[in-house]
Amino acid sequence: MDLAKELETSADEAKLRSSISRAYYASYCSARNYMEDVCHNKLPSNMPSHQYVIDYYNGKHGGRTNHRRSRIAENLKRMKSQRIMADYYNEGVHPIKALHDTAQFVIELSDDIIIVIGAGGL
What we know:
The chain is an all-alpha fold. Helix content is about 70%, strand content about 0%. It has 5 helices and no strands. The radius of gyration is 15 Å and the shape is elongated.
């Protein structure tokens, strides 16, 4: 997460895109690891892992749901969409200001997920 925050301070398009990606992956990996290590729900090899984790926190695949889990799922879904745009859309599609705003937004969502997961008791 530190790298995402460092890259977000740049005016370089590639660094801003990387910031968005790093912030998403920091929270995705935290959510996945909690699901596997604490909840003992392993990722299946025959399903898309990112969507599986989102669905798990929405109460599917043996997961239960509550307000905090639903918030994790919604934030992951929103960040995943932004990460896909940052990773796969051609250079120049988004002006630097928009990428910077997106990076800040994704970092805020990621921080929220990491804090909720770190508190445990999900």
